[in-house]
Design goal:
Thiol Ester Dehydrase, Chain A, eleven-stranded antiparallel beta sheet, 11 strands, globular
Length: 230
């Protein structure tokens, strides 16, 4: 049995954790290599019980099942690359600077101050289905060596996928798996890339996302399933 607690800083929707951060925190306790399915919004500020099972785990808030994790791998099938300049231009088209359903989201909330939230603002890349955003991690999300915490990398990979598939709907993360090949360094510019990863299935919308360095090398990749609320 392991205890997991998500602090208020890492919120997504009001009163609950950012889905990518929560999934990444669970994966970190399990040494990665898992796919995490969220069964209900992960609560903030109180202990959650993680019980290991068959290479994965179940996470409970009291008697309520919050998440399940199972062994998984993520292939590095990234459909394109973007330059830092392209990512900057795309971010200018971020559709949620106004009317964001969760404006204080740790990853993409425009009401989070620089140095507090990640302020990742994905926009569409001209000429295709790719979405992109620049990201320069701050020192508050890094360790003494300047390397960004793995759960924060998951959080950075999270919301770009949701933007790529949301259309006119409000979507929340339902399932996520990520593979971090190299942790990014605080103070270094990177690009985040996202794309639809298959056809919608009812309320479910699959997405992929990746973290690229300034030369286009892939540092991390994720696949996710987003769920529409309306």
């Amino acid at each position: 049995m392991t205890e997991l607690r998500v602090g208020e800083r890492f919120r997504g929707p009001p009163g609950s954790a950012n889905g990518g951060y929560a999934c990444g925190a669970i994966a970190e306790l399990l040494d990665g290599g898992v796919e995490v399915t969220l069964r209900r919004p992960p609560p903030l500020g109180r202990p959650l019980r993680l019980r290991r099972r068959d290479g994965g785990a179940v996470v409970h808030d009291g008697d309520q099942l919050v998440a399940e994790a199972r062994p998984a791998t993520v292939a590095l099938d990234v459909p394109g690359v973007v330059s830092p300049a392209q990512a900057e231009r795309a971010a200018g088209g971020y559709p949620l600077f106004r009317g964001h359903p969760f404006p204080t989201c740790f990853t993409c909330g425009p009401e989070r101050a620089a140095g507090d939230g990640l302020r990742v603002f994905p926009g569409p890349v001209s000429g295709g289905d790719l979405w992109a955003a620049p990201w320069t991690p701050g020192p508050s999300v890094a360790d003494r060596d300047g390397l960004v915490a793995p759960a924060v990398v998951w959080a950075a990979l999270d919301c770009p996928g949701g933007l790529a598939v949301m259309g006119d709907a409000v979507v929340v993360l339902g399932r996520m798996a990520a593979r971090v090949l190299a942790r990014p360094r605080a103070g270094t510019p990177y690009c985040l890339l996202a794309w639809p990863d298959g056809a919608p299935d009812g309320r479910k919308r699959p997405a992929g996302s990746a973290l690229l360095d300034g030369q286009g090398a892939v540092l991390a990749v994720a696949r996710a399933v987003w769920v529409t609320l309306s």
